[in-house]
Amino acid sequence: MTEILARTVEVTRTYGSVTALDRVSLDIHAGELVGLLGPNGAGKSTLVNLFAGLRRPTSGTVELLGGSPLDPARRRGIGVTPQETGLPPALRVGECVDFVRAHFPGAVDRGELLDRFGLADLVKRQIGGLSGGQKRRLAVALAFAGNPRLVFLDEPTTGLDVEARHALWDAVRDFHAAGGTVVLTSHYLEEIEALAKRVVVIGEGRVLTDDTMEAVRGLVGVHRVTVTVPETPDLPGVIGVEREGDRTHLLTADADALVRELVLTGVPFSGLEVRPTSLEEAFLVITGREPQPA
Ligand code: ADP
Ligand code: MG
């Protein structure tokens, strides 16, 4: 078995009457690239913040590098980019990178770090004058400054344009290829799909699925096939039916197969529409709740 770098055991975290995490048990093994996927409010940030020692659990235990995440010695082995970062606006980019690097005995090379995150041209710029995307790149770069074994990236590409997003994905892949362990969150299936091998689907504070990307794609890759039919045909592979006026929505993981079946029944239908459901809708299907018509 590979070493476990981070672990939660039956962790619950509440904020007043809100249960952000509900008895979550999760192991992160050395060398993994784990995606935490879930809609807004699912509990992803809370989980990352607990791992990184930025929050404490209400109950249950969190372990980081074999000890407590509150121990500064353990925290030196990790890098974190929280979802919200407040970087000092008066500091220059280079100063900020140096400040963070100074906290780590084995910090990465300054120039290399700046290059890797496309920050070399911004070294002398004050953080307060950067664009949102530039600030985000800096915040993500800082997670790697201390040459960590394990990084937590919470919605790392928020506010980045396509090119910057792909450059950041490359940086994450390089870190992972060199043996680094990564936990990243996203509410975009596309981002998790681009990076993660293992996907932990989180909804309403609970782990709904913990599986390979291939398996999860089948679960959340739900399509909505909409037709006007006299009555709802009984078809294989339908995981949800909604009627809206004279329109019938059929939810399925395999829209092609469903349309073939529909044609074979000979039922007169019109106005065929096929479109992917949102991640939120897919979650409602996974959790067995009634999806609302979009
Ligand atoms: P995600 O990152 O998946 O969007 P969060 O972990 O941020 O989810 O939030 C999970 C739940 O906990 C949400 O209902 C959110 O409103 C609530 N929550 C998170 N942080 C706080 C906080 N500091 N105070 C009160 N409620 C919070
Ligand atoms: Mg979040």
Characteristic key phrases:
294 residues, alpha/beta, Rossmann fold, 6-stranded mixed β-sheet, 13 strands, 31% helix, 30% strand, elongated, binds adenosine-5'-diphosphate, binds magnesium ion, ABC-2 type transport system ATP-binding protein, ATP-binding, nucleotide-binding, antibiotic resistance
Count of domain modules: 2
Question: What distance separates the N and C termini?
Answer: 45 Å
CATH superfamily of the largest domain, by name, is: P-loop containing nucleotide triphosphate hydrolases
Order of helices and strands: EEEHEHEHHHEHEHEEHEEEHEH
CATH level 1 name of the largest domain: Alpha Beta
The DSSP helix count reads: 10
Count of strand segments:
13
Q: What structural class results from the helix and strand content? A: alpha/beta
From the alpha-carbon coordinates, what is the Rg to the nearest angstrom? 22 Å
The description of the largest β-sheet is: 6 strands, mixed
Assigned CATH architecture of the largest domain: 3-Layer(aba) Sandwich
- CATH topology (fold) name of the largest domain: Rossmann fold
Unreliable stretches covering 5 or more consecutive residues:
none
The fraction of residues assigned to DSSP E strands is 25-35%
Strands of the largest sheet, in order across it? Answer: 5-6-7-3-8-9
- Helix amount, in percent? 25-40%
Which cofactor or ligand species appear?
Answer: adenosine-5'-diphosphate, magnesium ion
Give average pLDDT, whole number: 91
What does the overall shape look like?
elongated
